[in-house]
TrEMBL record:
SUPFAM superfamilies: ClpP/crotonase. It is an enzyme of class 4 (lyase). GO terms for molecular function: enoyl-CoA hydratase activity. This is enoyl-CoA hydratase. Keywords: Fatty acid metabolism, Lipid metabolism, Lyase. Could possibly oxidize fatty acids using specific components. The keyword Oxidoreductase does not apply. It comes from the Bacteria. It catalyses: a (3S)-3-hydroxyacyl-CoA = a (2E)-enoyl-CoA + H2O; a 4-saturated-(3S)-3-hydroxyacyl-CoA = a (3E)-enoyl-CoA + H2O. Its EC number is 4.2.1.17.
Length: 258
């Protein structure tokens, strides 16, 4: 399907989705979020794709939800349309891993979108923020919840209440991003991480993603039980036999997703 606000490139087993509304610093409007959720669903269905990277431009991953599109909406319009709800639910349903490669601004909905991905690799120019407070609103697609889980209450409150931005170095130190790389290397680093993931057994990759995500939804005891069941279950796969045999035989494993 042809998209207007995003570009999708599939190379080998990695889908690279680039947000493309440069005139608005990739602000998220209904069209972009619909296209992005469709592209992710398609990548999830595409047997060739094993990992997905979502990125923006050097200046902006995304500078938030589109203020022009939202500004005149009424409560009833927002509520009845479940504005952005369907699309963001679809994004977080993606089973294959998604890496956010963030350069420049990741603000408001942009920061929230990055946090919907499985992990964030940031360039040294990245700036994260939840500045909705300056617009007389608050975060609306997960920011108060996901940022708090990522960086803790103190920093999350600070960012949501003052609207201040967090630079890449602080974001890494605080656990919001997994690595920081020079801006010029961002795409290469994200694609190389995605390629590494693509080489694993897809069964264990999806199990790992499910288990880590479960830690946000349940108690420690339940989460550990969930992990143990998945771990035990993986012994029913050929890939477990292959992975362990390859280690013992000192060779590279050949995973077949079985
Ligand atoms: N929405 C719409 N247009 C935007 C946005 C945005 N969020 N951000 C930037 N733009 C546009 C500007 O209007 C400008 O367009 P134009 O040239 O036509 O005037 C163009 O992008 C370039 O922007 P600037 O000239 O402002 O560029 P600067 O380099 O001077 O500044 C900033 C960059 C600091 C990023 C600045 O653009 C800015 O502050 N942007 C807004 C950031 C913000 O407040 N984001 C939060 C938005 S609200 C939100 O995300 C809520 C999410 C939850 C939605 C939930 C729905 C249920």
């Amino acid at each position: 399907m042809a998209f207007e606000t995003i570009n999708v490139e599939i190379d080998d087993s990695v889908a690279l989705i680039t947000l493309n509304r440069p005139e608005a610093l990739n602000a998220l409007n209904s069209q972009l979020l619909t296209e992005l959720s469709k592209a992710l669903a398609e990548a999830d269905q595409n047997d060739k794709v094993r990992c997905i990277v979502v990125t923006g431009s050097e200046k902006a991953f995304a500078a938030g939800a589109d203020i022009k599109e939202m500004s005149e909406k009424s409560f009833v319009e927002m509520y009845l349309s479940d504005y952005f709800g369907t699309e963001t639910d679809q994004i977080t349903k993606t089973r294959k891993p998604i890496i956010a490669a963030v350069s420049g601004y990741a603000l408001g909905g942009g920061c929230e979108l990055a946090m919907m991905c499985d992990f964030i690799i940031a360039s040294d120019t990245a700036k994260f923020g939840q500045p909705e407070i300056n617009l007389g609103v608050i975060a609306g697609i997960g920011g108060t919840q996901r940022l708090t889980r990522a960086v803790g209450k103190a920093k999350s409150m600070d960012m949501h209440l003052t609207g201040r931005f967090m630079e890449a170095e602080e974001a890494e130190r605080s656990g919001l991003v997994s690595r920081v790389v020079p801006a010029k290397k961002l795409k290469e680093e994200a694609l190389s991480a995605a390629q590494k993931i693509a080489e694993k057994s897809q069964v264990s990759v999806i199990a790992a993603k499910e288990a880590v995500n479960r830690s946000f939804e349940t108690t420690l005891a339940e989460g550990i039980q969930f992990e143990r069941r998945l771990f035990n279950g993986l012994f029913a796969t050929e890939d477990q036999k292959e992975g362990m045999a390859a280690f013992l035989e000192k060779r590279e494993p050949q995973f077949r997703d079985r």
